[in-house]
Design brief:
Elements: H1 6-9, E1 13-17, E2 20-23, H2 24-46, H3 54-80, H4 82-87, E3 96-99, E4 102-105, H5 113-130, H6 135-142, H7 146-159, H8 188-206, H9 216-232, E5 244-246, E6 249-250, H10 251-278
Antiparallel strand pairs: 1-2, 3-4, 5-6
Helix pairs in contact: 2-3, 2-7, 3-5, 7-8, 8-9, 9-10
């Protein structure tokens, strides 16, 4: 079936400029950042709850992108492959692999979503504190827009042929050229693009104008992403250097359960703060 062999027909390289390769993966992430910016810009122009200028939005996004990249890289190093990078600390920041065969340019492979999320929260909090902006209000501004960016980020994973799913016999399974086993596998990147991206974006976008208390969209985002990702992990191939952590659970699922718990706790806390502030049921 042609569908099953689709990944084998896709080149991860969009085009080359001399020695420089422009990959679909990088382009998809640029699209994701651009979409997030445009959606946030639309909200500050159309909605009265977010009194921010375009310049503040741009500055906040640049800070968050920095936090995302640093957090995602360090998260992968610490959570998923600590022993490897403990022996090769230079590979954390240098895109080279050193071996007896010489030095090879391999890029910075390995990013953690949960590490990136922590990085965004930390840099976003520091930015808001430095500019005397409500962190909870700013988080509620960005959260409904962020999942649509995941759609293109996960499409980038698919076009790159990475993060494929577990073996399957279902007719929509695919063969991925980076899979050394050559098995038919779930296209879990597309599952994530649909549910972590389109589904979660649609849900948060529909309720974005409800404002029971500041921080509620952030809490819904944490709960929603954690639940969706938890179930999709059953179709995603675990990282080979880790495998399963607790019985049938992967590291990603354990982190998602923690994420959901934080989201529920945040919802209850911010709701109680809203009740005390307004004195009425939010």
């Amino acid at each position: 079936m042609s569908w099953q062999h689709l990944p084998e027909k896709i080149s991860p390289v969009l085009f080359t400029l001399g020695p420089l390769q422009i990959r679909w993966y990088s382009v998809m992430y640029l699209v994701a950042f651009a979409l997030t910016y445009l959606l946030v810009l639309y909200r500050i122009k159309k909605e009265r709850h977010y009194p921010y200028s375009q310049e503040i939005v741009i500055d906040a996004i640049l800070w968050c992108i920095l936090g995302l990249m640093v957090g995602a890289r360090l998260g992968y190093v610490v959570i998923y492959n600590f022993s490897y990078y403990l022996a090769r600390p230079w590979e954390i920041i240098l895109p080279f692999h050193f071996s007896s065969e010489g030095v090879k340019l391999v890029g910075l492979s390995g990013m953690s979503y949960h590490g990136g999320a922590i990085g965004v929260v930390v840099t976003g909090f520091l930015y808001c504190r430095a500019h005397r902006i409500s962190f909870w209000n700013m988080a509620d501004l960005f959260c409904p827009a962020i999942p649509l960016g995941y759609t293109f980020g996960r499409l980038g994973n698919f076009l790159n042929g990475e993060l494929f799913g577990r073996p399957t016999q279902l007719p929509w399974g695919m063969y991925f050229p980076l899979d050394p086993t050559g098995l038919l596998r779930h296209p879990s990147q597309l599952y994530e693009a649909l549910f972590e991206g389109v589904f979660l974006f649609s849900l948060l976008w529909l309720v974005r104008n409800k404002h029971p208390f500041e921080g509620w969209l952030l809490s819904l985002y944490l709960i929603g992403y954690g639940l969706v990702r938890f179930f999709i992990e059953f179709f995603r191939e675990p990282d080979p250097q880790i495998g399963f952590i607790v019985g049938f659970l992967t590291m990603g699922q354990i982190l998602c359960l923690i994420m959901v718990a934080i989201g529920v706790g945040l919802y209850l806390w911010r709701r109680s703060v809203g009740l005390k502030t307004h004195g009425t049921q939010p």
